[in-house]
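Quick check before the chapter quiz. The format below is the same one you will see on the exam, so make sure you can read both the input and the output lines.
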Amino acid sequence: MAETPTLKFITLEGGEGTGKSTLQRALAKRLESEGFEVVTTREPGGTPLAEAVRQLALHPPAGGNWSPMSEALLMNAARRDHLENLIRPALAEGKWVICDRFADSTRVYQSVKGGVSPNVLKSMEASVLGETVPGLTLILDAPLETTASRRTSRNGPDDVFEKRAADFHHAVRQGFISLSQSEPDRCRLIDASRSEQDVFEAAWAVLAATYSLGEMAG
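Here is the expected output.
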């Protein structure tokens, strides 16, 4: 049995439209109801500088197109500021941190379809993260038909990743599935094709078991 993680740092991963933001809100609400302080954040973003990078990376100027290496560098620059100015201070204060996407997204998105070498991405990741590695990563997985329908129902413009072809999204989905298989102690795959309540209950069961929170009512 794996040891209980020392960092109360949870990341939510998966392709577009898998319900990460919805699950983040539900998990935070549940933890707060148990008396814990929770910080919710996202990547790219989370701090003023990182949010500026988010806009640049996801919505480049008309006609602009970042290469996978440029995307990886942008994401890691934003991540370093995010770690230094939000995540690490919150963890040091004993708060839980739940982040909508983190380093695993860079590892998957910027490596697929002829992208950056996984070894290069892992080297960047190690330098940027140091010892601030998530204690638990919940990877939400659903068929492309389901996620495409959810993306269509959203309000607001698509970002550069949401606009990409189905084969890209398929590769991303497979990348996350492979990640869950390669790091089973940290990463747990959640069937996100179910109802919001069912997804939350499955995720909460994993979180409670991972952090030895015990049986909780409600």
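If your answer matched, good. The chain has a mean pLDDT of 92.
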